[in-house]
Design goal:
The protein is an all-alpha fold. It is built from 14 helices and no strands. α2 crosses α3, α3 packs across α4 and α4 packs antiparallel against α5. The longest helix is centred in the first third of the chain and has 23 residues. It is globular and about 50 Å long.
């Protein structure tokens, strides 16, 4: 039944995307991926909206499904459907099989399909699948899981701090459950392997100076808008928690964050 929900989500996305186009969200990620396929160099010749992992995976999707914008949203729908299946197997470790299905059904009813080919959906898949492996009893489960979660950083660099918090949370769970065999050093090393590979890539192609400029963009944006982090955070909290009928109707997933 969970797989059928994933299939329905993919079908809905494919149908919906035929009649919906957003030149900004669709066009930017497609342009990055198309440039990679045409031999342009990341960071040096292309401004990447997201991490290098996103553009590489999207370029592979274009190769497989065709060099069309629709190919990206179709690929994203598959990733989202697989994420639902991952959540089912992950939640089944803590609740009953029936409750896990109702959880997936609730997520589907709140967010039935991906509307844009955002990198968040890929990260969502990596996180849910990684956690499923981490909490499995298989011999190399935690190794595969930490690798998958580590790869999230290559899709959105700013997620690094949240990944670190997640690792601490998992570590304390393991300690609390007295899992003595849990090797924290191997766990951290395997999760950092993708980041280490990326650092070597920047070093080999001498891209450190160019790449570090990406981290200046938030400060440039704040100065341009004459804003500060405190005001932005206050507006974000207001957006999430202050009741707004239109948000409840058109963005029901915000209820999850507000509660």
């Amino acid at each position: 039944l969970t797989i059928s929900i994933g299939i329905i989500s993919t079908i809905l996305t494919s149908y919906y995307s035929q009649f919906h186009y957003d030149g900004h969200h669709y066009g930017l990620v497609f342009d990055n991926s198309f440039d990679i396929l045409n031999g342009k160099k990341p960071f040096e010749e292309i401004f990447l909206l997201y991490g290098i992992g996103t553009v590489l995976v999207h370029s592979i999707a274009l190769k497989i499904f065709g060099e069309y914008i629709h190919s990206l949203i179709f690929f994203t729908s598959i990733i989202y459907s697989l994420s639902l299946v991952s959540i089912f197997f992950l939640s089944k470790k803590f609740i009953t099989k029936k409750s896990s299905f109702y959880l997936i059904l609730s997520i589907f009813l709140i967010h039935p399909m991906p509307e844009y080919p955002w990198t968040n959906y890929i990260i969502f898949f990596l996180l849910t699948t990684g956690l499923t492996f981490l909490f499995s009893q298989k011999k190399f489960g935690f190794l595969i899981g930490s690798l998958l979660i580590g790869f999230c950083v290559l899709f959105r660099q700013e997620i690094l701090i949240y990944i670190f918090i997640l690792f601490l949370f998992i570590f304390f769970i393991k300690i609390f459950n007295k899992e003595i065999k849990f090797n924290i050093f191997l766990f951290l090393f395997s999760s950092l392997v993708p980041l280490i590979i990326f650092v070597f890539y920047l070093y080999i192609f001498q891209l450190f100076e160019i790449y570090k400029n990406y981290y200046l963009l938030p400060q440039i944006f704040l100065e341009f808008k004459n804003e500060n982090l405190f005001d932005l955070f206050a507006r974000f909290l207001k957006y999430l928690f202050i009741p707004n009928l239109s948000k409840i109707i058109f963005e029901p997933y915000l209820i999850i964050f507000a509660t």
